[in-house]
Design a protein that fits this description.
single chain; alpha+beta; 60s Ribosomal Protein L30, Chain: A; six-stranded mixed β-sheet; 6 strands
Length: 125
């Protein structure tokens, strides 16, 4: 196993890694919409979705992978009413790539965030 840590995404806030590479996959921990420098969470679900995806992407890059290598994502939203906007931004960022996806409502995301995104991607060979 290889532990991934990059300053291009927020530092882990607990006893976990940003990602682990194992058995040909990169397992990215759930990413809240916190800026890499820890300066806070942007206002609004669109900005939060973009920041969470940017954090996932930065971690994948550090693992020599990318969003185009994602095989599955789990998207947690604090309220299902946010889903149309989250899905719009998600589709815009991922483009034609359509990994498997799960959406879960979690009304108590840490720090009052509206979205959190976890990913599993192919690791480089």
């Amino acid at each position: 196993m290889q532990t991934i840590l990059t300053s291009e995404a927020p530092a882990p806030g607990g006893h976990y890694s940003q990602a682990i590479v194992a058995n040909g996959f990169v397992f990215v921990a759930g990413q809240l919409p916190i800026a890499p420098d820890g300066s806070g969470i942007p206002a609004g679900v669109e900005a939060q979705t973009r920041q969470s995806l940017a954090n996932v992407e930065a971690i994948l890059r550090a693992a020599k992978s990318g969003l185009d290598q994602v095989v599955a994502m789990t998207v947690f939203v604090s309220d299902i009413a946010h889903w149309p906007e989250v899905n719009r931004v998600y589709a815009e960022v991922l483009g034609a790539h359509r990994p498997a996806r799960t959406v879960a409502v979690s009304p108590q995301l840490h720090f009052g965030a509206l979205v959190e995104i976890q990913a599993t991607a192919l690791a480089p060979r």
